[in-house]
Amino acid sequence: MKTKIFKYALVLGLISVFTSCENEQIDEQDQNQEVSKYDETSLSNAFFGREASSDCHFEYEGMDGPEFWEDLCGEDWKDCAGNSQSPINIITNSVIEDDNMNNINLNYTSSETDIFNNGHTIQFNYDTGSSASLNNIDYNLLQFHFHTGSEHTINGVQYPMEMHLVHQDPITKLLAVIGIFFKEGRTNRELNRFMNNLPKLEDDQYISSKKYHIKDMLPSDLEFYTYGGSLTTPACSEIVTWYVVKKTVEASHQQLERFAGIMHENFRPIQALNGRVVSTND
Ligand SMILES: [Zn+2]
After folding, report:
1. Where are the domains of the chain?
2. Is there a contact between 179 and 242 (Cβ–Cβ < 8 Å)?
């Protein structure tokens, strides 16, 4: 009799452990969808009204590396073989000066801290209410993230890190990304606020009510190169106007190493220009 009761209790116990695990899994899934809603794949899915293709997976090397991205998700990632892909090498001699191009006009405000490691980059989700006027279109700032080394190159030169500020036109859902190059130099004071809180592992997240202002991390002069291109991660959708800022910001060797140590090399190789023109507001 005793053993029967014991067995019964054991089974009940196992059932409750099992169901609570399942609940946790569901919560985690909900949470992941929430924190990753502004990553590039989700933004492209939103633009095309596509279901999230959570089974598809990419890497920066090996069999799931950039040269195979177009074939890793059925039809969904075919744009990775498109004709207007990013990043590109910007040849400064070939850049067209466009006097009609407006300067970048930032209407950024401060944000609480929300840093998420999505397995490909460290992404800072930014509170709603910040926007940028880019060539007369108002885009909302959604998030910014980092690549080590830089994705764009200037006359063939690659920088150690590039920051991407991802903006979305609330009406058309088209994207505008401002790229900022980091070069090795003095300790970056603004970046320093986050160095001890960078989420090291995939799906790790750091949230704090502590506010910061992204403008403090940008160069004062935002003269830029601009061209039409794509997301630099699958689905590589060609829905992005790029604004690559000429002036670099500095970060210390140690700071750059910290980012590289977490993200490893997460830059996509240079893509063919295919006749596209790069302009500047200079
Ligand atoms: Zn990026």
Report:
1. 40-280
2. yes
